[in-house]
Amino acid sequence: MFKNQYLSLFFVGMILSACSGAEENLSDDLSGNEPQVEEAIDHHSYSNVRDVRTSHLHLNLNVDFDSKTISGSALHSIENITKSKTMVFDVYDLKIDKVILDGQFETTYSIGEKDELHGAPLTVDINENTKNVEIFYSTDPSAQGLQWLNPQQTSGKEYPYLYSQGQAILTRSWIPCQDTPGIRITYSADVKVPVDLMAVMSADNPTEKSEDGRYSFKMDIPIPSYLIALAVGDLEFEPLGERTGVYTEPSMMDKCEYEFVDVEKMVNTAEKLYGEYKWGRYDLIVLPPSFPFGGMENPKLTFATPTIISGDRSLVSLVAHELAHSWSGNLVTNATWDDFWLNEGFTVYFENRIMEEIYGVEYAEMLMQIEFEGLEFENEMILKGDHPEDTKLKLDLEGRNPDDGMTAIAYVKGALFLKTLENTVGRVKFDEFLNKYFDDHKFQTITTEIFLAYLDKNLLKPNKVEFNTNEWVYEEGIPNNCIHIHSDNFDKVDEKCQKITSIYSALELDVKREDWSTHEWIHFIRHIPAEADADDLAMLDKEFHFSNWGNSEIMAEWYLVAIEKNYDKIEPYMEDFLIHVGRRKFLEPIYGELAKTKQGMELAKEIYAKARPNYHSISYMTIDEILEWDSI
User: Fold this and answer.
1) Where, residue-wise, is CATH 2.60.40.1730 in the chain?
2) Catalytic residue chosen out of the listed positions 134, 249, 297, 322
3) Cα–Cα distance between 138 and 213 in angstroms, integer?
4) Which sign does the torsion angle of CA 276, 443, 291, 385 carry?
5) Contact 186, 168 (CB under 8 A)
6) Annotation marks residue 322 as catalytic
7) Which pairs from 107-115 meet CB under 8 Å and 24+ separation?
8) Cα dihedral sign for 330, 334, 335, 340?
9) CA–CA separation, 477 vs 339, rounded Å?
10) May I ask the CATH class of domain 46-139+168-204+213-223?
11) Catalytic one among 161, 411, 608, 615?
12) Would residue 411 show up in a list of annotated catalytic residues for this protein?
């Protein structure tokens, strides 16, 4: 059981606001007749930030690919609020060499009992006048927040690669820190890497390799610890616009430049919707395929999966999503992982607005209907599972992995809550509200309760709107007043789907691959009639080549249907896909579908034995559970 020292976050006016004047603005926002909000508790951190907290972090690190370790020091500039005699950090399998106070005095420390999920508390003895705590340490080769890739796991096949992934509570596995989203810090870093490689971080970045492998970074805007990020590899940079660009391996650059041609336009569009972009540059880095997520919104440098490189720019909504996080998540951050929907629900909503502005209403409606279909399925599965309460927006993840909250509920139910609000009050009023919300809470961390109080005061009461807010946030399932999502384009796709079981050749459908967008093809695959069998799938595959289409989203959907209908011709293509793609969004449902039958489970384990070494810990921990891998 997690033996935590509860992180009591201050009521938002007191919470660690990192920009000048934020506390005053916040108290104004929450004054009046609004209900008092209980202090939030972060059950996933040992740190005692109510007593003493980091204000700035400086990293001095050496990246060693031979030992697969990072070593050096983390220098914390601290604020001792209560004159505490101890400061508690989160660590996970870090080797602590020594701790120095104020650059002069070595101090005593202790590491508590390790919890398999949360790591352990590192308790450092300080005094009430301590200004700096420097922790000298090294990481474990198996650090969960780092993935070390050999050359064969990269695009270029010549150099090794390293990247970090901190969300939700993995930064503590490579940096001793107060690993909670409830506080924000600035940071800087000096990083030494092999001379043939480039290092980049969620900070101001170089655009060329240094001659000596030394790089310096600065992030002077306060961010939560999960957004501190590092990547090291054979990288090059190309600009996409005045303040946008892409980093990737040289062999990937041409594809990336083509795919991301609209990124600068996305930034401009986002600003027109919800205010100034506060982070200076917006760059992307396209990582090797083992990256477990579609993207990670590390400020100034979005980390992205190569599975969005489709060759037809059809999957760039992911870029719009990560860009939108520059407002929702990075600018205004969930105070605890129980409030995760505040990051993701707002971001899916904002992403859809960006796509609507650039590509039109019908395109955005297709995207949202695809999301809604996924939500309906996941909502049903969760309600039937061990934690039906996970269909609430406000979660209770105490004692559980915060990754359990990373479902379609937070993302899509959260977005539909906002979209339903917009439909109720009107877009003009809703946009005015969101602009004010982002501006009033910029560089702050907030709870669900604080948002709801703000919503009531600034949108619902002024417009005399009665809304079932509590049902949306605190009750299970999808409320009946959820806005209806409908795409006319999908109606035409449905007409084709209905013919599948009555034709002898897919040519009779009179549609070519290039006639439809990725989203229409996904809808088509999802709506193949239930009575269709393996022969029908073989007919479709012969014409459209779904099994090796080249678009990861389409192939992943196809494999699910094929497994269900025992269409075994997919197996060599699916095996290749599962070995080379580490994105958990694809892996979890495919392995899950295979695991439903004895034969499928055997195939899944056979493939997984080859694929698991290529996966990030975030992915393999999920698949281990599905396949009961520890019992082998």
Assistant:
1) 46-139+168-204+213-223
2) 322
3) 19
4) negative
5) no
6) yes
7) 112/3, 112/46, 113/3, 115/1, 115/2, 115/3
8) negative
9) 17
10) mainly beta
11) 411
12) yes
User: In which region does residue 103 sit, left (phi positive, over 0), alpha (psi from -120 to 50) or beta (all else)?
Assistant: left
Other CB atoms within a 10 A radius of the CB of residue 471 amount to 16
Q: Which of 139, 224, 157, 153 is nearest to 186 (CA)?
A: 224
Torsion, Cα of 432, 438, 441, 447 (10° steps):
100
**CATH architecture for residues 488-631:** Alpha Horseshoe (1.25)
Cis peptide before 168 (omega within 30 of 0): yes
Q: Where in the chain is CATH 1.25.40.320?
A: 488-631
Q: Cα(76)–Cα(471) distance, rounded to whole angstroms?
A: 43
CATH code that applies to domain 332-474:
1.10.390.10
Q: What dihedral do alpha carbons 478, 358, 256, 148 form, nearest 10°?
A: -30
Amino acid code (one letter) for 530: A
Q: Which two tokens stand for residue 122?
A: 């590192």
What ranges in 101-193 are assigned the alpha helix state H? none
Cα–Cα–Cα angle for 450, 452, 457, nearest 5°?
95
Helix axes of 571-580 and 584-594: crossing angle, nearest 10 degrees: 140
Domain limits, CATH 1.10.390.10, in the chain: 332-474
Q: What averages of pLDDT result for each successive group of 10 residues across the chain (632 residues)?
A: 34 35 35 44 95 98 98 98 98 98 97 97 97 98 95 92 96 98 97 98 97 98 98 98 97 96 96 97 95 92 93 89 97 97 98 96 94 93 94 96 94 98 97 97 96 98 97 97 93 96 95 94 96 97 96 96 97 96 94 96 96 91 91 46
